[in-house]
């Protein structure tokens, strides 16, 4: 069964991605949390186009991806869980947790290091917050993120089927928690103890630095609570909050070529320099 799943890994990942994207788009249409500031035609071409660019770049740069590297590590006996006599179930659970912790730590690093922030700020410069925001990462950030992920996979010796499961879960939860969808308040309060919810992650896309530098989790919410980066709600409320970055409030935040050039433009080197006084022009 495991070998069968790995054989169909590209189909499983692509099918899961397409199904979750379609589901979130439908949910956003039927039950939106906020009224968007811009028309979808102003944002979606670039946000959807960047995922095509990212996919091409990754395929050109990396001959094998995370699941393939996990298989190589397994064959060569590399990594912690190949050195320790850990049963598959224990290695699987520990790998899922530690891979998610690595994604959290990487996210914090991309906010704290000025050069890395120049890459990551493209994600934050979106002037609205919906499922397509989850796809909006600069290809150079994607390459660096993949290098980090491959290193963690090898260091852990994570089982290939667990790495595939992690990739599918991470893609799905990232699209979910970037969704412009309404959840009942009581459900959101309970769910965010187990999973990063849209209301929890939306705080992270606020224009205010103290809110941008919080709620870094993409999948599990526990790391933010454990390391003191959790913030319950945005100061202005979810309807009144301003999304994006002060330095990018024009075409540079919505055009595909402009997004690709963003890291090379002069703007703030870290989110801590953003002003508090921006009034969004609708």
UniProtKB/TrEMBL annotation:
The keyword Ribosomal protein does not apply. One of its GO terms (molecular function) is iron ion binding. It is found in: Endomembrane system. Keywords: Lipid metabolism, Membrane, Oxidoreductase, Transmembrane, Transmembrane helix. The chain crosses the membrane at residues 6-27, 48-73, 88-110, 146-166. One of its GO terms (cellular component) is endomembrane system. It is a multi-pass membrane protein. Residues 95-229 form the Fatty acid hydroxylase domain. Pfam families: FA_hydroxylase (PF04116). One of its GO terms (biological process) is membrane lipid metabolic process. Its main location: membrane. It comes from the Bacteria. The keyword Transmembrane helix applies. This is Sterol desaturase-like protein. It comes from Candidatus Contendobacter odensis Run_B_J11.
